[in-house]
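Narrative progress, year one. The postdoctoral researcher (J.K.) led the effort to move from monomer predictions toward full complexes, under supervision of the PI. The following entry was the first complex the group processed end to end, covering 726 residues in total.
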Amino acid sequence: MALKTETMVLNMGPQHPSTHGVLRLELEIEGELILSVKPHIGYLHRCFEKHAEAMTYPQVIPYTDRLDYLAAMGNNFGYVVAVEKLLGIQIPERVEYIRIIMAELQRIASHLVAIATNGADIGALTPFLYLFRDREYILSLFEMTCGARMLYNYMWIGGVSHDIHPDFVRKTKEFIIHFRPTIVELNNLLTFNKIFIERTANIGILPIDTAINFGASGPVLRGSGLQFDVRKEDPYSIYNRFDFEIPTGKGLVGTVGDCWDRYYVRVLEMEQSLRIIEQAIDNIPGGDVHSAIPKRIKPPKGTVYSRVENPRGELGYFIISDGNLNPFRVKVRAPSFVNLELMGELCKGHLVADVIAILGSLDIVLGEIDR
Amino acid sequence: MYQFLYDLIGNEILAGLLVAVVPLTIILVFALFGIWLERKVSAHMQDRLGPMRTGWHGWLQTVADLMKMLQKEDIIATDADKTLYNIAPVLVFTGSFAAYAVIPFSSKLLGSEVEIGLFYVIAISSLVVAGILMAGWSANNKYSLLGAMRAAAQIISYEIPTALIILSMVMLTGTLSLEKISQMQTSSFWNWNIFGGAVFGLSKFLLIPFMIAGTLIIFTSTLAEVNRVPFDIPEAESELVAGYFTEYCGMKWGMFMLAEYGNMFAVSAIIAILFLGGYQSPIGYLGNSIGAQWLIPFEQGFWFIAKGLALVFVQMWLRWTLPRLRVDQLMTVCWKYLIPFAFINLIIIGIISLI
């Protein structure tokens, strides 16, 4: 007679140290082996899209901060680019440069959190604090500019809320000088650590065709080896003026598209962001950052879809205007939401401990998944 | 120690109790100090200050935390198996506490002079596994269960390389008594077992590399036995919340914590005795040179605790530097690397000791 066995269902979250917010994962496990993973979302739903319909166009901006709260500048950027496209206005050069510097600084800050938490989930707590120390530097740059450290409401339709501080350029250059050695330190301490490689290489391999079929974007897609970046493919703002590369996963220590590749793409992207900032910081033209802000924002009837490259991937805004002061519909294409769908695919056949490594390498933010 | 107290008091039970109080005091004081040290070490490694407000550099912080823990409500989940749930922390604590009975802190400060001290330590520390399994099963929590299963597998596996290295030392020294092993490594650090022990001639130099290898193996495997990073998968806080003691709170949780820090020092003490000369001073005694014999046991105590703490510091250092292994990789490290190497080490040391 065969022994009757049952699989065990383990609820990971919504209150769990490493589900990055309030995600609930329903794991079906046999011992430590994963049979299936079902993500349950919605614990952080705040009706952003419905709220947006009841507000004027500028009033929506603070709400976009709260989507991907680790990359609020990027969210602002995506929204204002979309509305500006709808309005068809030109914005001053100075504003474009400031926006790009802010967005790239934000990308570094966001990748720092992604890398740090990925490491901390695997048990490396010291790199976590080192990286947060450097993120602090960026946050104080933002604080100096607009007074906020996390949710900035900085980019306005047609401009930015505050001009940069007189010290901003000098401090940003200082940051670049200070930050380059940190990347080297990070690589020594974590990236090429034998145990870290053991834990992430050949884990959660995402083949390129699966990535494309699921609609993955950002470092998750690039980790699988596809050179796709909205900044290059569909340049918005003035990204076509800058010289930078798109790092992709090469399978340096394992297979292309594993957790380590996704992680390492982020490390390399920080370096590229530094390059963009370096090119932009010395060429900020003079002018008034408020000059192009329309007094009354009432776009003509029509629809617009505009996408930007957020740290987590392609962030798209689809806006329908019926010619009123408030949008008829705002739909957000959140990169984390799409990337999270890969969870079930990636975790099959791995162990419980790998779920954490894979989730960390997908780098989700629940704020934009649930909206 | 017991004999001394018995002569002093003249009552068997009272003397026995007093002897038992000594290790208990040491384990409690060390646990308090160890937690504070861990927080300070981690803080300074991470560009932080750690606790600073309570007392000088926060040294009263753990005392305050302990006070808080003692006052906390004892919550037991409805579906928990209450008997096992209550016994488990006691058993775990007993396992690590009882090991201190045979550890010679100095030639005078020794709980009980057991001839088979090493055997006793291996046997009594296995109690911890039973306690952990009980804790994991009785709490009726899936995370606890997974943690307990991992812990049992890990601790039992890593006992083998530990025991093999201990066996090689028993072969070399010809005794199971911790006190005798300490006595053998007297007079200078050159006589420590890590440098081949107090023998002379060719065999001493042949032994040195294998002794160093043995020290590294036993350090690694004891690290796993006390569930420290990179082998802390039973309580991996990012995966299993807190592993087998997820459901515990208040002083019962505190007992797991005390046991963990107690174990850290206990295994460091065993390594110090086996390889680093136990309580022997590396440079000779001040008491001998100034002719004050009474000073020597105190000096020995100082050296023993210094060696133990140095090893504890290395454990903490590793914890705050390395990530954590996965459960299958952990088993690979043990069965594919440590055990074969420990075996080879055992055989070679056996051959050399015959020369």
